[in-house]
Task: structure prediction
Amino acid sequence: MKIISTKGNEALMQRRKTAFACSRKTPGKLEYLVGKWLLGLSAERDCIMCGNQSPMEQAVFSVLLQRKIPTILVLAEAMHDGWNGDVENALAEGRLLIITHCDQSVHNVTARSAFDRNILMFSLAAKIVIGYYTKGGKLERALAGFDNVEYLENGQPWLERREEQKPAQAVQQAKPARLGEWNRRIRLKHGHIFLDFNDSGAETYFKITHSVQAGGDEYPRQKMFFDRKELSAFLSAITTIAEKSGKGEPIPQGLSVESLSGEVSFAVTAQDGGSLLTMTQDKEYGGGRHRVNTVALLLPELPMLIKGVDEALKEWKS
Result:
């Protein structure tokens, strides 16, 4: 992924950049936290990257222009031919750069172009600030593998999601989504693998998390995300690997699974007197740089993962 088109002050790309993003649906009173964060910004010190897709992102972009904070607007569509007065003024004064990874064929924002825009923006930023993300949504999926993230929502107990503000009786009668209840834990020689669904209602993703104790209380986690079609292809691939390894045959050359979160490739290496299978989800975001998440287990442990993924797919289709 690379930047296709730019407009404005390209010198801003050399600044230390903070990326801001926020889901469309947000908690009540989130404006207070975002406003507090905005007040702490300085035109001399800060350079903010953001999109203008969700209502909160649009509001933040407007405030950045008003306060004359150096800003990089990252589009998820082709470069526009014209802009409103505030944007044109910011461009003329050299405090705004507009960039896009989309060519002229992308006339409107799509799910993929928005996802890739977030990956590009996060990869260019020294720090990522998230107003709020919907569990199971594309924004959470895009954040996998980035550890330089600050969440403004921060679990504040007085925040309530607007879409969840329902009469008390309706809340009492509501039943949790079936997919949201499903989960599995696989105990490995090296750590654990957790299988579960991220289900926001509108979108559902399957998540594989590999957790290994690194020392003390540190448990680094590698996460891989799939939609249902991608997960079916992933199950087919790991089943093929299990069948081949059972016959003493190597993994088929070039075996991979396409995914919105990145292509998944497979490799087997010798470790601890056995064979270690690594499954790597790799998303390129330009300049030869990659966001990489790797889940690993010994080949004799692979049938447990196959069983878990197979159960998940049956649950998903029921």
Notes: The first strand starts at residue 5 and ends at 8. Residues 157-177 have pLDDT under 50 and may be disordered.
